[in-house]
Amino acid sequence: MNTYSTRLDKMLPRNSVRGLLMGTAASLAFAGIAAPAYAQDGVEYDDSNVITVIARKQTESLQEVPVTVTAIGGDTLEKYQVNEIADVVSRVPALNVQVGGSGSGGQISLRGVGSSNISASFDSAVAFDFDGVQVSTMRIVQAGFFDVEQIDILKGPQSLFFGKSASAGVFAIRSANPTREWEMAGKASYEFEEKGYTFGGHISGPLSDTLGIRVAGQYQDIEDYVKVQPGTPAFNPDGSFRDSRGLSNFVGRATLQWDPVDNFNANLKLNYVRNRSDGADSHTDISCGANGVADPVYLLQGGLVIPSNANCNATDGLYGMSDGAAALVSNVPTGSGGDNTSFENGIPFGKTDIFFGRLKWDLDLSETLTLSSVSGYLSLDSVDTDCYAYTGALAPGVAGNAGCSDPVNKTEQFTQELRITSDFDGMFNFMLGAFYETRDIDFNTSQQGVNISFVAPDPVTGFTYDWYKKQNTKTEALSFFASATLDLTDRLQLSGGVRWTDESKISTISVPYVHSFLSATPAFISSGFFSGPIEFSDSNFSPEASIKYQATPDINIYASFKTGFKSGGIDNSALPSNSLLGFNDPDPAVRQAVADALKFDSETGIGGEIGVKAQFADRTVTLNTSVFYYVFDDLQVQNFDAAAVQFQTFNASQLTTQGVDVEWGWRTPVEGLNLSGSIAYTDAEFTAPFVTTSGEDINGRSAARAPKFAANAAFDWTVPMGDALELGLNGNLQYSGSYFTNEDSASDTVQDSYVSIDGSISVGDPDGKWKLSLVGVNLTDEIWVNTSAGRPFLEPGVGDDEVWTQNRGRQVFVEAAFKF
Description:
mainly beta; Maltoporin, Chain A; 22-stranded antiparallel β-barrel; five-stranded mixed sheet; 46 strands; about 5% helix; disordered N terminus
């Protein structure tokens, strides 16, 4: 039966256990790619370490499942201080993670396919799956995580089993569960480069024969998360000069595992995340462009020019992010995100609170049928304030940043999935399921697009912002899916299925306030505007089929055909310009045309891959290879038009991505030494006309953030030092080829190839009772560009500065940990 084993044991379906016991699924420990010996609590069969993944809503072995998956064990995450989603990139060459952006707050992309990190209206093309629940908002990538059992990266469309937001893949996190025996663990670390400390731990064990509990928490405080360029006018609330921006994170989780009877078990997880920062802008620097000059902030058609304080060294790890000019931020509109906060003094801040709950239960209806339920609830409340001229000083020591805003993102999401799974002894098995989601997003912001209060505050209200805009979007999605497997022989299996999805969205736009100087002009609407409902709906069938052949007990060959779907929607970046006046037109056709201009189409993908998963030399060598080809139509893209100071949403006609993924591992003859690595070749380019913000057709150009070649190589060496001590040596090298950093023109900024190195050395008790570690992340202090865009408020035809979002620099930790 496909039910989870009880009594707080590892949750493996019984049919999977039978396969594992046959030895067909054994895999060695991937140091730096996956660490199954630890990730799976050291479960061994025939002296072989087994990695399991949940790639098809069932627990299956990595070496058997006909899906391209990278599994990263919890032990590897601990060794390299991986506390954020962006930290995983160095272990998965085809993966790119961007943190930041004033809209969604982040983006995950695979094989060159992803969604915007600047629009809260986009779902992610790579589904974020947390303990079996798909989380639609990418703001969650800003939150930290810990106490993780395993991370699985599923590549290629996964819509059959994971739904509408998995058109390019899945990033799945499985948190740790209660243990069979009582245990307590803790750790504390200090990071020298950013001056940050982290401490946390967990307690886990059985409350009774049928009920287990695990309580875990972690707090992180970083003083110099972003180092401010010397001389930048940025101030603390007490008026003193600030030379850095800090960040703090708290993550807490409680898990209950209940196994009252043999045919039923339930697992409840309650999570709380609290994130606080000194502004939305983090690692965002200014490139001075071809003219080599730090261009000034050009406002009011040249009526005000603010000198730039950028140092034209965009890779020095120092950021010239000034506070907001007092004339712009001294009186925030009532009810907006910056109201009654320190931002009225021009001091940026950010805060995010996330509550996440998940209840999963499994009921054996019979010896051959299992009913499973997964209920998920997410409540996210986020506000960040900052200024997006990114630079500027009215005078030495006087802040002059412009383009300020205070976006509020409130999301409430409920999801419910039900599945019936069979476990017949014969050749045929099936899964039937239904999924429902309801989601409510508020995206509200006060904004400076014209910066008119440099002339004077609003004479009526006294507010110093250009406008205050609110947009609410309600989403409802329903889908049904069915899959089946047919074991044609002991070695040959055919599987497939289809998911039908229907999704509808209703959005409303209201503008409570527009500065009187702007509303008096024909270019802007007046205060009090309301759009009425803007509606979008779409439905889709997403079929999938695969065939796998177990050539030998150690060689598995598979081929798959897959499709993906990601719903379209309603853009949330419209400015309160006169273009919205059409919503008040008496002609329904005019109102519909204005509404249609704010909509973007659904995104679809189709293609497949062929793979071989093989082990050699008594399963001490693992070599997994896949070749893939996918075509994505109507890829959802959002670019920033620096001249208009507006985000613009597109559907790129077509993107084709093809390539090869290779992962390898070697459990060497040297005791305790494991080697591993991965190589990704990706050819992702636009293959149909796509005219962007620049007016240029970039058909034939490569996609952004898609290097042709990327790779990593790692080692993991555990060396006994007598009976009481153990030495650990670990290292990981990441290589990325060059790639475009934007999708706007053929001459977009290109990030050159780079190499970064992580490493750790530890000494501790062989049984894990205590350990002292020295950890280095990005030891070469390599700074690379994730995204680029034109800097707003440039003098037309003169300024050419760009805004670059970048990674974190070098981090060096010392850590003490215990477990008993």
